[in-house]
Design brief:
Distance between the termini: 27 Å
Largest sheet: 2 strands, antiparallel
Radius of gyration: 13 Å
Strand content: 5-15%
Order of helices and strands: EEHH
Shape: flat
Number of helices: 2
Strand order of the largest sheet: 1-2
Number of domains: 1
Helix content: 40-55%
Number of strands: 2
Structural class: alpha+beta
């Protein structure tokens, strides 16, 4: 697991990150773009947009 505070959800099936850091947020955004089939939106490109505001 990435560093951070984790806890089990109410069903004790999934582990939930309590405070997502920038790396996790960028990875989630990347997965969204990948699932909708957006081209040319890699993690490094998304990180530049994320950090650029």
């Amino acid at each position: 697991f990435p560093p951070g505070s984790w806890k089990w959800n109410d069903t004790e099936v999934d582990i939930v990150l309590l405070k997502p850091n920038d790396e996790v947020k960028i990875a989630r955004i990347y997965e969204f773009f990948k699932q909708i089939g957006a081209k040319y939106w890699g993690e490094s490109t998304l990180a530049k947009f994320y950090h650029g505001g």
